[in-house]
Design a protein that fits this description.
Elements (H helix, E strand, L loop, with lengths): L2 H30 L3 H4 L4 E6 L5 E4 L5 H17 L10 E4 L11 E10 L2 E11 L25 E5 L2 E2 L1 H9 L4 H29 L5 H20 L4 E9 L6 E9 L4 E4 L15 H16 L7 H4 L2 E4 L18 H4 L2 H9 L19 E4 L1 H4 L8 E4 L29 H7 L2 E8 L15 E7 L5 E6 L20 E4 L8 E6 L5 E4 L14 H11 L2
Parallel strand pairs: 10-11
Antiparallel strand pairs: 1-2, 1-5, 3-4, 3-6, 4-5, 6-7, 8-9, 9-10, 12-13, 12-16, 14-15, 15-19, 16-18, 17-19
Helix pairs in contact: 1-5, 3-7, 4-5, 7-10
């Protein structure tokens, strides 16, 4: 075997090792995190970058909104703290929505990796934390300054020593100081673990830098992505989708141009900015739009800087998908997670056999709050702040039904009710699949859920409603029916607002009916045995 062939094999082994490194990085975060959003739902990302801020590899665990926007954020860190100024033991942090992942509840930490006293790579991660003060995770803020503690890019550890001024400010700005501080330590620890594993790999292979490996990864990923784009039909394809919005419905429009060596998306005609926190920073728009395209066009190509480069976005100023500072953005996911469905609406016209129907898309993750901060001196419960992640059904696939109660496009896990009940005085009285909620079709949309939530002893509590797909249910494709719309109210049948802070009175419970996914194809073409099963399920 030639030396060239051996070198190629060795590089492939190193690439596989790199994936193992970042996956261990993510798993350490999950196992050491304080916030249930991280350790139970996996609302995080982890990755390794070269010294130019280009992402080489990401952990399998993680969400597209975190991973793909984090890919941009490392460059902002380097602009403030160049790589040649970094020291071993340094850790840098921000939650700036426009330099990170789109809202204040996501912390991004960047850490340099050193070998023999020389910086060789950067590790980054992002995690969604429970509380950063302010109004909490809800859409009611009029500016980002109302939404919580705003952390610029700063050092949280300087050569291994904690920045006590930073941690004093951090603890003072949250309702959950111990949990938030613990999460920051967790984020730094997992980056340190990734750095150690990378150095071990470099020692084993005698690698002075990772530059050659990076170029191999980027070259292979770029060529593979361009090859897949070249197989697509050329042309322009347009689609639109509606969100319930806050003050008024929101329309998202896209015109996708498929060229020989790139795909460009123009969002002209999309609704303007909102006065509430449903606005989307541009990086988060790019993150989920690129993910939606990649799922269809090049799903087997590793996700990194080079494989995302051919996907280009034109996002007009003043558009809800390009919110400038200091617009409120706390629940940017409500609109942003509709973007993969919008991209698939365009791609359905080009490659209809590779696209799914619309799904519930946006997470139904109600932030719950109780105690004196809700009920004052009459509070029956201690103060608590908790978020639970739940999902409706995904859209039907061309050859299979949609997935029931599954998070797409976010990819987070549904949180066990026991985990939430263990950390807060809340009770889940019901959590079950919602019969008949999947849109009919040759293949059926996935089912949503029905949930009933109360405080312990049926005490008063509050919900920061951040729900969508109620007035605009997931649509079917190719003659498939729409999924069932969502519903938000109380167990006595009272309807409440789908967005905004609301108090659930003593003796009442919150009832959520999560949307089902849209169907695919003519329902008359459905397998008779499956149709009979659907009918039986709907009668339960």
């Amino acid at each position: 075997m030639s030396d060239t062939a051996l070198a190629t094999i060795q590089r492939q082994i190193q690439w596989n090792r790199l994936i193992a490194v970042v996956e261990e990085q993510a798993q350490i975060m999950i196992r050491t995190a304080f916030s249930t959003t991280v350790r139970e739902a996996g609302d995080l990302s982890a990755g390794v970058f070269d010294l130019r801020g280009r992402m080489l590899a990401q952990a399998v665990t993680g969400t597209p909104g975190h991973v793909n926007s984090m890919m941009e954020s490392v460059g902002h860190f380097l602009a403030k703290f160049p790589a040649n100024t970094m020291k071993p033991g340094d850790h840098y942090i921000t939650n700036d929505p426009w330099l990170g992942t789109g809202h204040l509840h996501d912390l991004t930490v960047v850490t340099p990796a050193f070998r023999n006293g020389r910086i060789v790579a950067l590790f980054a991660n992002t995690a969604h934390v429970i509380d950063v003060g302010g109004l909490g995770m809800g859409p009611d803020g009029r500016s980002v300054f109302e939404e919580g503690l705003y952390i610029p890019i700063v050092k949280c550890f300087d050569q291994g020593r904690a920045n006590e001024t930073f941690f004093d400010i951090l603890r003072a700005g949250t309702r959950t100081p111990a949990e938030l501080e613990g999460d920051v330590y967790s984020l730094c620890a997992c980056n340190d673990a990734g750095a150690r594993r990378l150095v071990e790999m470099m020692d084993e292979y005698g690698m002075e830098t990772i530059d050659d490996l990076a170029e191999l990864i980027f070259d292979a990923s770029s060529r593979a992505t361009l090859a897949e784009i070249a197989k697509l039909p050329r042309g322009e394809f347009s689609a639109e989708i509606s969100s319930d919005g806050y003050e008024a419905p929101v329309t998202l429009r896209a015109r996708m141009t498929i060229a020989e060596d790139h795909i460009e998306v123009d969002y002209a005609g999309t609704s303007g900015l909102s006065g509430r926190g449903i606005n989307v920073p541009a990086a988060y728009c790019r993150a989920y739009a690129c993910f939606g395209i990649k799922c269809v066009v090049a799903p087997e190509v590793p996700n990194n800087w080079a494989s995302l480069l051919p996907f280009r976005m034109e996002i007009p100023e003043g558009c809800i998908l390009n919110a400038p500072r200091p617009y409120p953005v706390a629940v940017r996911h409500v609109v942003g997670q509709l973007l993969p469905d919008l991209m698939m609406g365009c791609l359905h016209q080009a490659v209809p056999d590779r696209v799914v129907a619309e799904g519930s898309s946006c997470l139904w993750n109600p932030p719950l709050r109780g105690g004196g901060q809700v009920s004052g001196a009459e509070a029956e419960l201690p103060d608590f702040e908790v978020i639970t992640f739940n999902s409706g059904g995904t859209g039907a696939r061309p050859g299979q039904d949609g997935l029931d109660a599954t998070a797409f496009p976010s990819g987070v896990r549904t949180m066990p009710v026991e985990a939430t009940e263990n950390v807060a005085p809340v009770v889940f009285w019901k959590k079950e699949l919602r019969p008949g909620s999947g849109g009919p079709g040759r293949t059926r949309g996935g089912l949503g859920q029905v949930m009933e939530i109360g405080a312990r002893d049926d005490a008063e509590f509050a919900v920061n409603a951040i729900f969508d797909r109620v007035a605009n249910p997931p649509r079917g494709r190719d003659g498939g029916g729409d999924g069932a719309p969502g519903w938000v109210g109380l167990t006595d049948g009272t309807t409440i607002r789908t967005k905004g802070y609301q108090v659930i009175p003593r003796g009442k419970r919150l009832r959520l009916m999560l949307p089902g996914g849209g169907g695919m194809g003519d329902p008359a073409e459905r397998d008779p045995a499956l149709a009979a099963r659907d009918l039986a399920d709907s009668l339960l």
